[in-house]
């Protein structure tokens, strides 16, 4: 058996750090998206609860917290108990916390069947990720307390809660103390914390007891741009948004409606910087997004504060987008087409932060460009990705190649789109981005720090 110890300090007092770890969502926030581990069940307490992850290859990782390891405000431990994996890994993880003035030292001690040196090498990236994530999340929650006009935590209904951004956002919200109600087409009841949502006929009582709505759901925009695909993208956004906004307007107690949107509103050929005042551009996506945002008007007309979060391309380790882009670079692929087209990106944690701020901050309303401050072209993105994640981007990808996957319309709307978008509204408010530059975001998401 080998033992590995990782130790780091965060500039927050022990009670604050310990309390954060006890909240629902903490385990999701500490699990690298790059790991491809999907939370199935989270421990309801640190003394003897159980956390279960789904792993690639239909494997399951079950971690049982050990009562003998538990000391309140000091330590807790978990043991892998999945048959097969338990014998193979011998995994035991002890989390220890110690006050150092106004800071806290967090020590992770791992016992595994792997030799200590090998385990230390394999797991260093993951624990650096956890360290950076913990510090950044606690920092964000300090900011959030200053932004909020509400003293009490919110009860938030979220559509698209199991998607890329939704998973991280819901975890962030629960670690902040909010109650999350997930609206899902697969749920069985219209009550409780997971409610059945019919996008085209929402139940009248769907939003009862809710303070705020965050609407993320919609068919993926990426795909082959046939008339059928474009219609599916439109039908999953415009009418469902209008119906949900109308229901929010009718439901007593709701004061905030935050709706996802996209920088596609500015069109597929916008080389000059576009802030939130820029007009709608050309193309299928631009028209869909314009109608999508207009569908939130019933909530605004009823006096709710409405924010339309015009998101850029979200970067997360293990996501289809970043995995595809990285595979291209690792195989020697370079810039796409001319490479001069702007690539409007945002790290997944910054995207979650922006939605959280839109939930809380009364000054944040109307259109908000959720993109990072650093503007890069496709060629620049490719070079930075290779520098951080490895690869030899030496062979340019011809502009005709994306048409084989997305069709000619899709290639122009997606892979070859030129969208120079700037986060003017957020910058005017001096919003603190976790990853204002691309290299920082990629190092974190790929566990390269």
Search tags:
449 residues, alpha/beta, Alpha-D-Glucose-1,6-Bisphosphate, Chain A, domain 4, Rossmann fold, seven-stranded parallel beta sheet, 15 helices, 26% strand, DUF1731
Description:
Residues 397-444 form the DUF1731 domain. Belongs to the NAD(P)-dependent epimerase/dehydratase family. SDR39U1 subfamily. Residues 156-363 form the NAD-dependent epimerase/dehydratase domain. Pfam families: DUF1731, Epimerase. This is TIGR01777 family protein. With 449 residues, this protein is α/β, with parallel strands linked by helices. It folds into 2 domains: 2-145, Alpha-D-Glucose-1,6-Bisphosphate, Chain A, domain 4 (2-Layer Sandwich); 148-445, NAD(P)-binding Rossmann-like Domain (Rossmann fold). It is 36% helix and 26% strand. The chain is built from 15 helices and 22 strands. Strands 1-7-6-5-4-3-2 form a 7-stranded antiparallel β-sheet. The protein has a 7-stranded parallel β-sheet with strand order 10-9-8-11-12-14-19, with helices on both faces. Helix 5 crosses helix 11, helix 7 (238-250) packs parallel to helix 8 and helix 10 (320-330) packs across helix 12. The model has no long low-confidence stretch (mean pLDDT 95).
């Amino acid at each position: 058996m080998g033992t590995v110890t990782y130790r780091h300090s965060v500039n927050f007092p022990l009670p604050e750090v310990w309390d954060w770890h006890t909240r629902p969502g903490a385990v999701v926030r500490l699990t690298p998206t790059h790991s491809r581990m999907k939370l199935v069940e989270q421990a309801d307490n640190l003394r003897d609860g159980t956390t279960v992850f789904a792993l690639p290859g239909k494997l399951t990782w079950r971690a049982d917290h050990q009562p003998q390891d538990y000391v309140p405000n000091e330590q807790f431990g978990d043991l892998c108990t999945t048959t097969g994996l338990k014998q193979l890994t011998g995994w035991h993880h002890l989390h220890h916390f110690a006050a150092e003035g106004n800071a806290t030292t967090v020590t992770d001690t791992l016992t595994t069947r792997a030799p200590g040196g090998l385990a230390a090498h394999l797991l260093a990236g993951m624990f650096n990720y956890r360290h950076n994530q913990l510090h950044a999340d606690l920092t964000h929650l300090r900011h959030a307390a200053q932004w909020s006009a509400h003293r009490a935590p919110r009860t938030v209904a979220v559509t698209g809660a199991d998607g890329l951004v939704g998973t991280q956002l819901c975890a962030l919200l629960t670690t902040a103390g909010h109650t999350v109600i997930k609206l899902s087409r697969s749920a069985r009841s219209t009550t409780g914390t997971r409610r059945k949502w019919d996008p085209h006929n929402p139940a009248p009582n769907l939003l009862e007891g809710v303070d705020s709505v965050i609407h993320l759901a919609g068919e993926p925009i990426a795909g082959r741009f046939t008339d059928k695909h474009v219609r599916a993208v439109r039908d999953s956004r415009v009418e469902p948004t209008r119906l949900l906004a109308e229901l929010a307007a009718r439901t007593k107690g709701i004061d905030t409606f935050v709706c996802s949107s996209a920088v596609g509103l500015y069109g597929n050929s916008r080389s000059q910087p576009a802030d939130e005042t820029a007009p709608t551009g050309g193309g299928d996506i631009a028209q869909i997004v314009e109608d999508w945002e207009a569908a939130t008007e019933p909530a605004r007309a009823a006096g709710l504060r409405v924010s339309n979060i015009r998101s850029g391309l979200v970067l997360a380790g293990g996501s289809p987008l970043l995995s595809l882009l990285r595979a291209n670079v690792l195989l020697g692929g370079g810039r796409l087409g001319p490479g001069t087209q702007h690539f409007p990106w945002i790290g997944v944690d910054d995207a979650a932060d922006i939605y959280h701020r839109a939930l809380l901050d009364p000054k944040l309303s109307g259109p908000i460009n959720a993109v990072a401050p650093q503007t890069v072209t496709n060629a620049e993105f490719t070079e930075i990705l290779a520098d951080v994640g490895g690869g030899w981007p030496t062979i340019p990808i011809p502009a005709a190649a994306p048409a084989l996957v997305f069709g000619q319309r899709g290639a122009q709307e997606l892979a070859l789109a030129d969208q120079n978008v700037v986060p003017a509204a957020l910058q005017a408010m001096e919003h603190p981005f976790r990853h204002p530059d691309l290299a920082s975001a990629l190092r974190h998401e790929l566990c390269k720090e």
